[in-house]
Amino acid sequence: MFSSEKEIEIRYAETDQMGVVYHANYLVWMEIGRTKLIEDLGYTYAGLEADGYLSPVTDLSIQYKAVMKYGQKATVRTWVESHERLKTTYGYEIFHEDGTISATATSEHVVVKKANFRPVSLKKVKPDWDAKYTEIQRRKK
């Protein structure tokens, strides 16, 4: 399975009054992981946008397992869980330096035309990118 990893140094501003990473920051880390995966495959989200397309989140699921705190380092592992005609589901594991899983998650995305937000197949706008996602997806159809 192809995956990407990105280390994140947890900043004080990402924690709550208890010193625990605030839950919404995991979503930011997932975006960082997704961007890294795309770049590791040789593409850029900025390039997709420059061509007039966006890839909004249509569904998100996250399961919190163990707290993370200021001063620790988190690693985000990201992969393509499944890739279909109009949607891509990414999988994530966020874990501590010792390998303890802090959170697992999935996010579902579609590609839309920036001008009208109408869904469009990635295969139509970026056939090589689509082929790569089809090749590396974890759950083969």
TrEMBL record:
Its EC number is 3.1.2.-. It is an enzyme of class 3 (hydrolase). The keyword Hydrolase applies. It holds the Pfam family 4HBT_2. The keyword Hydrolase applies. GO terms for molecular function: fatty acyl-CoA hydrolase activity. Keywords: Hydrolase. Belongs to the 4-hydroxybenzoyl-CoA thioesterase family. This is Acyl-CoA thioester hydrolase. The lineage of its organism: Bacteria, Bacillati, Bacillota, Bacilli, Bacillales.
